[in-house]
Automatic annotation (TrEMBL):
Residues given in the record as FAD binding sites: G15, G16, T17, A18, L329, I342
The keyword Nucleotide-binding is assigned to this record: yes
UniProt cross-references to InterPro entries, sorted A to Z: FAD/NAD-bd_sf, Flavin-dep_Halogenase_NPB, Flavin_halogenase, Trp_halogen
Protein name listed in UniProt: Tryptophan halogenase
Length: 495
């Protein structure tokens, strides 16, 4: 094998959450097998938002050998069991998308079929009562349970997470260079990236470059013009204002997503403060009105100046192009409703490590990476669009636009299948499993017209026993759980 052709020099451009997540994982996994350099500019800074996550991050940290309590102390993290959605189906309604499983599935049919049969037989207890994580969240309870029986994620300060990972990555051999990338130099023959040229003309050469420069996408778009698919016609919000407030009550183990007439508002409680943000569609709400709305619906006085952000929901057409891989916001962004951005970073980093070329970059690897990453993004997109499309809200031009918009065929199939039969299938390792789809589809107002006949196989007393047993297990377990905030304080050693 020709040694010269080996990918040894990996250069990461950008040191936000994406850059340092990539550096930490690559340095820890490959160690001295690669020569890893990260360039970032303190003067440019990072986007400074991104606080709510989903459960796979727990595994990412485990994979990197991170001690959870250390991580939570360093990032001021709390536990997250799901998202409470207010005013999405209709003003005045709410539902919860939890991370757990609801009830007990049979191999032939999900629990929702048995619950629907129960309802037809007069059992009125809500679907929510059968989900441990959901009941625990709304009760403000949390604990680690044996066998990972409590499925959770974190609410964290992503800037602190990047700093925490930086310490790890540097210890594991990553070289950090402070400086502003002024120019990206292409190889005249191959068209690949040859080097990053910093202000002052310092050159950083590499074999492969990870573009973690955020929305700027300096390498993948600025230099290589990989192209962008705009998804604004499906995800119309394009603006956000973020600010932080003190905690006026103990932090709860869930994120809130409160719809308003031109978008929605988040509230994310960390240990030491809360993150707040208004997401909106600038066609229907101007900046001043958006700020006024946000300031009118926060708890406590703001701790920070408002951070105004603009974005375009959509994806880079090629996530990996030539010798450049886009990771993080440079690869695309779908608005933060289901907290999926940091997860997409994680997926891209792990995928990249799995497909690290042995010699030259292989076109097959690139195609595989782009297919897999693209599929993740489309599946997440469909799940997000569901929240806007399926609603009874028609009280504003924004919601009427959402109700009227054409949606991807893949989503139509999922919605209509569930509406007709109560069935939902997880395809191709899709991120959001059946439980998520069922909770959100029912929460947004879809009433399935039928359910699987297997549910009717149960005698009335068997059905009653099944439902009562699951509810009992959930409520007994939750009753014994500690308060979330007390558990976090103890776990992180603050008590
Ligand atoms: P950035 O943080 O922007 O980092 C870019 C890096 O590139 C910086 O280090 C910068 O200095 C460097 N850089 C740029 N140009 C140059 C240059 N010329 N020279 C040198 N360095 C340069 N995600 C979630 O998972 N959960 C959430 O709840 C969530 N909420 C969000 C809310 C909003 C409104 C938005 C917009 C995003 C949200 N995200 C969320 C996404 C999340 O913020 C990002 O995915 C995450 O922070 C990663 O950002 P990044 O590292 O790609 O980019």
């Amino acid at each position: 094998m020709n040694e010269e052709k080996h990918v040894r020099r990996i250069v990461i451009a950008g040191g936000g959450t994406a850059g340092w997540m990539a550096a930490a994982a690559i340095a820890r996994t490959l160690g001295p097998a690669v020569d890893l350099t990260l360039v970032e500019s303190e003067a440019i800074g990072t986007i400074g938002v991104g606080e709510s996550t989903i459960p796979p991050l727990v595994n990412y940290n485990r994979l990197l050998g991170i001690n959870e309590a250390d991580f939570m102390r360093a990032t001021q993290a709390t536990f997250k069991l799901g998202i409470l959605f207010d005013d999405w189906k209709d003003v005045g309604t709410r539902y919860f998308h939890s991370f757990g499983l609801t009830g007990k599935d049979h191999w032939s049919a999900g629990f929702q079929h048995f619950w629907m049969h129960g309802r037809a037989k007069g059992h009125e207890q809500p679907y929510d009562d059968y989900c441990l994580e959901l009941v625990a969240a709304l009760d403000g309870k949390f604990a680690h349970l044996p066998d990972d029986r409590m499925n959770y994620a974190y609410q964290l300060d992503s800037g602190l997470y990047a700093r925490f990972l930086r310490r790890m990555a540097e210890k594991d051999g990553t070289k950090r260079i402070e400086g502003r990338i002024g120019r990206v130099e292409l190889d005249a023959e191959s068209g690949d990236i040859a080097a990053l040229v910093l202000d002052g003309d310092r050159r950083i050469e590499g074999d492969i470059f990870l573009d973690c420069t955020g929305f700027r996408a300096l390498l993948i778009e600025g230099a290589l013009h990989a192209g962008f698919d705009d998804w604004t016609h499906w995800l119309p919000c394009d603006s956000a204002i973020a600010l932080q407030t003190p905690n006026v009550r103990p932090p709860v183990p869930y994120t809130r997503a409160m719809a308003h007439d031109a978008g929605w508002q988040w509230r994310i409680p960390l240990q030491h403060r809360s993150g707040n943000g208004l997401v909106y569609c600038s066609r229907y709400l101007d900046r001043d009105a958006a700020l006024e709305r946000l300031l009118g619906n926060i708890e406590g006085e703001p701790l920070t100046e408002p951070n105004f952000l603009r974005f375009t929901s959509g994806v880079r057409r090629r996530q990996w192009y030539r010798n450049c891989v886009a990771i993080g916001l440079s690869g695309g962004f779908m608005e933060p409703l289901e907290s999926t951005s940091i997860h997409l970073i994680q997926r891209a980093v792990l995928r990249f490590v799995r497909m690290l070329p042995a010699g030259r970059v292989s076109a097959r690897d690139v195609a595989e990476f782009n297919d897999q990453q693209g599929q993740d993004m489309e599946q997440i997109r469909d799940f997000l669009v569901l929240h806007y499309k399926v609603t009874n809200r028609r009280d504003s031009a924004f919601w009427r636009q959402c109700a009227d918009m054409p949606i991807p065929d893949s989503l139509t199939q999922k919605i209509e299948l569930f509406r007709e039969t109560g069935r939902v299938f997880r395809r191709n390792e899709e991120l959001f499993a059946e439980n998520s789809w069922v909770q959100v589809m029912m929460g947004q107002g879809i009433e399935p017209q039928s359910y699987h006949p297997i549910a009717t196989k149960l005698r009335d007393d068997e059905l009653e026993k099944l439902l009562a047993t699951i509810r009992g297990q959930v409520s007994d377990t939750v009753a014994k759980l500690p308060e979330h905030h007390a558990y976090v304080a103890r776990y992180c050693g603050a008590e």
